[in-house]
Specification:
Elements (H helix, E strand, L loop, with lengths): L2 E12 L6 E9 L2 E8 L5 E3 L9 H27 L6 E2 L5 H11 L13 E2 H4 L8 H13 L3 E3 L8 E4 L1 E2 L8 H13 L11 H25 L9 H11 L4 H17 L11 H19 L17 H10 L11 H17 L10 E6 L3 E6 L5 E5 L2
Parallel strand pairs: 5-9
Antiparallel strand pairs: 1-2, 2-3, 3-4, 6-8, 7-8, 10-11, 11-12
Length: 388
């Protein structure tokens, strides 16, 4: 219950629904201060705290419309299951680690339990958001999910780019977007104590290589943008970067790329358009020659810090800063050094089984840095392990 402390008419602010002037209200709820605008005509409320919802008639009708839309989609999916043999609904746990990471990066800043949200992803609204390191990579991940029927076009959408997520989730016949987001958050944010989002630790290692390569592509695109020159990744550049990542930090590869691009720009070899990957192939060849010479002459490769102007993507934040509990030192360390710290724990959780009955249906009773206690839901056995 809200206790109104003060209400003043603010004629400079207008209701987003009916355009009438609004009151500025200072209130209190359970001892907590709450400030919001309230329409003087239709009583619509706009809270400063985005987690609070308005309960005016217009907002309630809108929520009923969204529920009706979700039920319509549920009926549609049930009909499709009976008629379309190509329609296959996969389990959320069955999709790859990188796809789970991508879905969480899309949903995490949009879907909350106590705030209003659509039951579909509106791609047109978020496609330029920093979800992945670069736009082309983001586009390819989305296409892969569409091809696997994880994302399906909203059947009654008049405009393109609105997708439902078609996945099964244990305990739910038709999981809501919040249920899917909540499960992904448990997997990525709870230090592996609520299940794991990968089948083997190698899946995580592959994701580290993939995201750091796309980060390098983001860097060279950012650098070439200063000269209005197009550039992108290709299979040849990917192979070179993966080989470099085996021994160098991302910051050192940034330096190699920057030095090579500066040389190519000074020689006026870069083309405005990257037709047939001409700029990409020139860069690859130059970096390759520079690296071979540095090894032969035993140069020490300089390490560039992460440029502050280079936007940090949501996928990078979730994987490195939340899931693996790293910091920005990941850009100044080689992958083998990062992997040395995180591999034992990831490998343990990927292989864990009950010592008594062999079941993998285990709950985490106690979890510390080096040891963990697990309780088997099948035979009630409690086991204690060291993870290093």
């Amino acid at each position: 219950m809200l206790q109104i402390l003060q209400r003043n008419l603010d004629e400079s602010t207008h209701c987003p629904l009916c355009r009438a002037s609004m009151f500025w209200v200072e209130a209190e709820q359970y001892g907590q201060e709450i400030n919001y605008h309230e329409c003087s005509y239709c009583e619509h409320k706009v809270f400063l705290d985005k987690t609070l919802n308005c309960h005016c008639s217009a907002c309630q009708n809108n929520r009923k419309k969204l529920i009706k839309e979700a039920l319509h989609q549920e009926n549609y999916k049930q009909k499709m299951k009976g008629k379309d043999k190509d329609f296959i609904e996969v389990g959320l746990s069955q999709i790859s680690f990188i796809q789970k990471l991508y879905l969480l990066s899309i949903l995490d800043d949009q879907v909350f339990e106590n705030s209003q949200h659509n039951e579909y992803i509106d791609w047109e609204k978020i496609k330029y958001a920093p979800i992945s390191p670069n736009y082309l990579y983001q586009k390819s991940l989305t296409k892969r999910l569409i091809d696997q029927h994880v994302l399906s076009l909203k059947d009654d959408a008049s405009e393109s780019g609105q997708y439902y997520i078609n996945v099964r989730l244990d305990g739910y016949s038709e999981p809501s977007l919040y249920s899917i987001t909540h499960r992904l958050r448990l997997w990525f944010y709870e230090n592996l104590s609520h299940g794991i989002p990968f089948k083997s630790s190698d899946e995580v290692k592959d994701a580290i290589y993939e995201l750091l390569y796309e980060k390098i592509v983001q860097f060279i695109q950012f650098y070439c943008k200063l000269w209005q020159v197009q550039i992108s990744g290709n299979s040849g550049l990917r192979t070179l970067c993966y080989r470099l990542l085996d021994s160098l930090a991302v910051g050192q590869i940034f330096y190699l790329m920057q030095t090579a691009l500066d040389y190519l720009h000074q020689q006026k070899l870069l083309q405005p358009r990257n037709e047939k990957f001409i700029n990409t192939n020139l860069l690859k060849k130059t970096v390759q020659q520079y690296r071979e010479r540095s090894i032969a002459e035993k140069w020490v490769t300089t390490t560039l810090p992460h440029p502050p102007q280079l936007q940090m993507s949501k996928m990078i934040e979730v994987l490195f800063f939340r899931f693996l509990n790293c910091d920005e030192s990941v850009f100044v360390q080689p992958i083998w050094k990062i992997w040395e710290k995180v591999e034992p724990r990831l490998k343990f959780y990927a292989l864990k089984r009950c010592m008594h009955c062999g079941s993998d249906e285990l709950d985490v009773d106690f979890d510390a840095d080096n040891h963990v206690s697990l309780f088997c839901r099948n035979c009630k056995q409690q086991d204690h392990y060291f993870t290093r």
